[in-house]
Input
Amino acid sequence: MSSLTAAQIQTKLTAIDAAIDTIISDPTAYVNYKIGDKSIDKGNVLKELRETRNYYEKLLQNIPYESIDAVEINVSSFGEDKSEILGEPTS
Output
C-alpha cells in the first residue's frame, strides 16, 4: 500500500499529464540525437511518462473512496432532518 494520499497521487498525475502535453505539442524536441561523442536520449521520455502514469493510476484505484451520487434532502416543518443518501440501506 502506498503512503501517498489520493490528492498527492492526483497531483502527480496532473504533472505527468502536463509533461505529456508538452511533448505532444513539440515532439521534435524529444528525439534521440548525437553530437560528436555525446549522445542524447530523449526518445523514451514519453514511454517512461506513460508507464509512470499507469503506476500512479493503479495506486489511485487501490485507495478506498466513497462515492455519493445523489442525496435526498428532507427536512420537516418541525426541523426534523430525514435526509438520506439514495441507495443507502435504511434501518
User: Anything to note?
Assistant: The first strand starts at residue 33 and ends at 35. The chain is about 40% helix and 10% strand.
